[in-house]
What does this fold into?
Amino acid sequence: MAKPTKTNTPITEHLAYLLAQANREINRQLELRLSKEGVPVEQWRILKVLSDGNGHSMGELAEAVLLNHPTLTKMIDRMVSDTLVYRVQDPNDRRKVLMFISDRGKVLCKKLNSLAVDQEEHILESYGDKPTSELKRLLESLIDSSN
Amino acid sequence: MAKPTKTNTPITEHLAYLLAQANREINRQLELRLSKEGVPVEQWRILKVLSDGNGHSMGELAEAVLLNHPTLTKMIDRMVSDTLVYRVQDPNDRRKVLMFISDRGKVLCKKLNSLAVDQEEHILESYGDKPTSELKRLLESLIDSSN
DNA sequence: CTTCAATTGTTGAATATTCAATATTTTCAA
DNA sequence: TTGAAAATATTGAATATTCAACAATTGAAG
It folds into this structure.
């Protein structure tokens, strides 16, 4: 009887590792583009979420931009100093703070969007149209299945 | 003539965002499992890379485990204190340090591997066999195309 | 009503990460 | 062979993140 072969999976074959690696690489590229405007990726995400013009609570924002609460609070402090966003107390629930994007924030967000679109286009070129949309589809469904 | 529709892509449709989100979620799950042994994900990666028994330089390791040099140095310091790994000066190039896994490190690594395998199996169950391998394939080729 | 638990956001201390500077060794051109 | 440049790893200061505690408000049970 054959001994069961202990296939010690190399780290490069773990899904968690592949995701981390791909994320790191794509994020680095995006970071590089956005650095033209001196803005970290997280701030772009915040501006983008707020650019629907509605007020978003801190909790909601934290969830949407993948930051935990204290980190978000401190990043928002900086963005308020830079007058990119502002706080308004929620009149319906005074525990909450509603965040809004400022006019200056909107202008910056537009510039950042076009830098980000540049990157997406670059990916489409080097990686291909079909693989990209297929990858997006799979990622979405992975995320869904994890909740 | 119709005005060109400004389709302001929501952040949730950007590849960079989907990758960040998926990575965050899967990493959180893995973290949770490994916390049973009180070990951060990065240390598991380090142990796994070193568990081939060969010496690996700091630069090589940093690349493999997705950490930059100073962060790795400080994490290795901790792991040396915990006698999970040890440093040896490279005899062929004395600028380099070769890292090796200790016996204690090997024992721990095995436990961690099985916790990680548990997670992969859990993903296979909830997400499916085919989507998982397809996702891995696409991630690998994305990473390739980014270099 | 009143009180106690839950929710929301912020703060400060502890911890971790990053950037720039440093030390050491090797490489290579003159 | 020598001296300058490149490669490798570490350090310390600056910065960022996280954890636990807190304050304020709301919800809900008695």
Remarks:
- The mean pLDDT of chain A is 95.
- Strands of chain A lie at 56-57, 85-89, 97-101.
